[in-house]
Amino acid sequence: MSTPSPLRPPAPLHPVGLRLQGRQVVVVGGGPPAYRAAAGLLDAGAVVTVVGPTVVPALEALAGSGALTWHRRPYSSGDLQDAWYAVAATGEPGLDERVAHDAERCRVFCTTAGDPGTSTALPDHPAPHEHPAPQRGGPGRVVLVGGGPGDPGLITVRGQQALAVADVVVVDHLAPRTLVAGLRPDVELVDASKLPRGRAMPQEEINALLVSHARAGKHVVRLKGGDPFVFGRGMEEVLACAAADVPVEVVPGVTSAVGVPGTAGIPVTHRGLTHEFVVVSGHVPPGHPQSLVDWSAIGRLRGTVVVLMGVDTAPAIAASLVEHGRKPGTPVAVVTEGTTSGQRTFRTTLDELADTIRREDVRPPAVWVVGDVVDLAAEAHRGDA
Questions:
Q1: Residues 113 and 154 in one domain
Q2: How far apart are CA 355 and CA 362, in angstroms?
């Protein structure tokens, strides 16, 4: 193979978009660049396989939910055999070059993260030298951004502005993945996910990262799912920045406690039906030593109960609500992957909730709603018929 002259300009690109809906794509690597690539490919409807011995928690969460397939092993040349497109994102130049070479041999278009020169396909955003970072000036700072429950269109304008000028984005796996895929190529991405009963970056480490990057003069965005102050531990990060004299701003987000039921047609309040609603964390069950919830009081309420982070603990919570006063036949709606294209809603009752979750293989992220407001969604659908 001849080597082109270094003085010869690169061949011009032919602009074209890839329709990857339902087609096999392989991402080799497991770090933040691989996560960014996988996020964009999933949004394009591709069938994504990630190959790598280890992956960041955000990729592990996507694999655990069934959104993609993870082969937990080193790359093998045969991995590209059935692929339409490949991404080499290991961060190891020799291995990425090998993936690109195998892709060319298999006639599979390939993007090499961080090295456009070895790519046969380029992302649709400009390379760093073609897309200069916005002018900022001033010292480093931290912005806590609520990304909303999943649909990237639900982030606020202020949140979008913060992401547009970020140098570093410290992301939660529940943040809308489209926002991650759309970051400028030169933005440093740090995965600070906390998986349910799984891998989790310690909060103290997250706080230290925010402070250290800001002290280095960087504009740091802490991108969270939902709202930073609704079970998001945002105030801990604000206090850590304040203690370090680091400027910090909070950008509220649409909380899944209201946004997800809303997209399923369920209002958390309704005139003449309920005058209150309560949002409860279900990450520990009733009776757990770490639980701060007065479940007896929650069970006596007549209004709406919204449970977040309560998939595994749903049977125990439902039993406690019935024990303390809720009728077994109280309507319940379980909404998974709320506000995204994968959203599903299951209508059940408190006494049938455990069976429904098991039968439908409900996995996080999911929100469930208890109360008579659940029936309003069915009435609205009858009105549309």
A1: no
A2: 10
Structural domain for 174, as ranges = 140-253
Per residue in 98-125, pLDDT tens?
999 999 999 999 999 866 656 667 666 5
- Intra-chain end-to-end CA distance of the chain, in Å: 65
* Nearest partner of 40 among 129, 135, 113, judged by Cα: 113
CA Rg value for the chain: 23
Same domain (yes/no): 291, 343: yes
Residue 146 has pLDDT above 70, yes or no: yes
- The model's pLDDT over 75-86, given as tens digits with 9 standing for 90+, comes to 998 999 999 999
Q: Are residues 100 and 193 in the same domain?
A: no
Write the pLDDT tens digit of every residue in 43-100: 999 999 999 999 999 999 999 989 999 999 999 989 999 999 999 999 999 999 999 9
Q: How many CB atoms lie within 10 A of CB 355?
A: 12
Residue 49's domain is classified under what CATH number?
3.40.50.720
For the entire predicted model, the pTM comes to 0.85
Give the span between the Cα atoms of 377 and 381, in whole angstroms.
Answer: 6
Confidence of residue 7 (pLDDT cuts 50, 70, 90): low
The angle, 0 to 180 degrees and rounded to 10, between the axes of the packed helices 57-64 and 32-43 is 40
CA 63/CA 76 separation, integer angstroms: 20
- Whose tokens are 């809720």? That residue is 326
Strand order in the sheet with 277-281: 277-281, 304-308, 366-370, 331-336, 344-349
Return d(Cα 42, Cα 182) in angstroms, integer: 13
Whole-number Å distance between alpha carbons of 219 and 82 = 41
For residue 270, give Cα distances in angstroms to 3, 177, 248, 255, 276. 71, 32, 37, 19, 9
As a whole number, the mean pLDDT across the chain is 91
Say how many C-beta atoms besides its own lie within 10 A of residue 112's C-beta: 25
State how many domains the chain has: 3
